[in-house]
Design a protein that fits this description.
This protein has three domains: 89 residues, no CATH class; 127 residues, 7 Propeller (Methylamine Dehydrogenase, Chain H); 119 residues, Sandwich (Immunoglobulin-like). It is built from five helices and 30 strands. Strands 21, 22, 23, 25 and 28 form a five-stranded mixed beta sheet that branches. Strands 5-6-7-10 form a four-stranded antiparallel beta sheet. The longest helix has 9 residues. The protein is extended.
């Protein structure tokens, strides 16, 4: 409801959005939502079926819980007992109890209704504890020992805190345990399997949005900085820095490498989008070109270091369809297929099938060639699209 208009004397969008003492967590009873949908209590807006807000309120589907100003991360503890929220404009991480939320709804322990008729659960009725961690808390990750680790954007640090029962009780619950500075302005972070039921602990990676003085200057754009932190000791310890040059680091997951069962080579003829045999796959000896009216359809095999067929003839205005099958069975034997005039560039892993379609709208001879280094004769892996008037 903050719409800006600071030139007309209205608050800027960010000021209007942050003016309240609290924002609100939305709590959805998805089982009731499914029942409401099954009962047909929905309406369609622009082709999308939705549950109206008044229905969500009257059917007890949606509730609100006050949370610190400008909340960012909402992260669930591995045991499902707690939900941690970092408020960018509040120095605390607020930990909510899932059991207390359920009880507050059951007991109708509400503060009031908002202007849309939604029940607001009392803050104290849902909160399990608060920990003052520092300036600009954002996202929380967990280990296997009952500790949470939250990023502090403004302070450029990671704070370690304890959660409640069953891991910690009494004066050991909901306490700041340790803090380590990072460089600089950490947004997201990841612990090993920290978003799963079975965190591995041991390590944390800080995904920092700036590096400034950490790496040699090569231009105006600095890399982001990932920092590996050891969690095994009494105190967190920085192990290494690593520059990351692509994009702003956001949500990532870390799992044990031995859990990855990766494909090295697809069975020849695989469509990787479906993992099924592609009906347009071809094999050695079955390559062909067919013309049907104004359509030229090609079934092509791709292997070191040639396309077969390597010459495609079409007339101006023809629709050209090329089915490409990488018939390699060697790991990492990736090939490309590019026709620059038609802005086509396809990468084909071993065994993969891909299809490209375009209209031959210009007369001439146009090169098509491999764009993935594949062999000593990589530069000779090419062909021609010949378009006549």
């Amino acid at each position: 409801m903050a719409v800006g208009g600071n030139l007309e004397g209205k608050p800027a969008i960010e000021a209007g959005a942050s003016k309240g003492d609290f924002d609100f967590m939305h709590v959805i009873n998805w089982k009731k939502a499914e029942q409401v949908v099954a009962a047909g209590k929905t309406k369609t807006i622009n082709g999308m079926r939705v549950i109206p807000l008044e229905t969500a309120a009257s059917e007890d589907i949606l509730f609100l819980i006050p949370e610190p100003r400008s909340p960012h991360g909402v992260d669930v503890h591995p045991g499902g007992d707690y939900i941690s929220v970092g408020g960018k404009l509040d120095p605390h991480v607020t930990i909510y109890s899932f059991a207390k939320i359920q009880k507050a709804i059951q007991d109708k322990n509400f503060e009031k209704k908002d202007q849309f008729g939604l029940n607001i659960i009392r803050f104290d009725a849902a909160m399990a504890g608060q920990v003052e961690v520092g300036a600009g808390p954002l996202h929380t990750q967990y280990d296997d020992k009952g500790y949470g680790y939250i990023s502090l954007f403004v302070e450029s640090a990671v704070a370690k805190f304890s959660v409640g029962a069953p891991q910690f009780t009494g004066d050991k619950a909901f306490k700041l345990v340790d803090k380590i500075p990072v460089n600089y302005n950490i947004g997201h972070l990841v612990t090993m399997q920290g978003d799963t039921l079975k965190p591995e602990g041991k390590y944390l990676v800080a995904l920092n949005k700036w590096s400034i003085d950490r790496f040699p200057t090569v231009g105006t754009l600095k890399p982001q900085n990932f920092q590996l932190i050891d969690l095994t000791g009494e105190k967190m310890a920085l192990l290494s820095d690593m520059p990351i040059g692509l994009g702003e680091p956001h949500y990532v997951q870390a799992i044990r490498a031995d859990k990855i069962k990766a494909w090295e080579v697809y069975p020849v003829g695989t469509n990787p989008a479906t993992m099924d045999k592609d009906p347009n796959a071809t094999s050695d000896g079955k390559e062909r070109i067919e013309r049907k009216g104004s359509t030229v359809e090609v079934w092509t095999t791709v292997k070191r270091s040639s396309y077969k067929p390597d010459t495609i003839k079409a007339k101006k205005g023809d629709k050209v369809i090329v089915h490409l099958t990488n018939v390699e069975t060697t790991p990492d034997a990736t090939h490309g297929f590019a026709v620059p005039r038609y802005n086509i560039n396809v990468s084909l892993d071993p065994g993969e099938v891909a299809t490209v379609e375009f209209t031959a709208d210009q007369v001439g001879a146009f090169a098509m060639y491999c764009t993935e280094f594949c062999s000593a004769l990589h530069l000779e892996m090419q062909g021609w699209l010949l378009v006549s008037a």
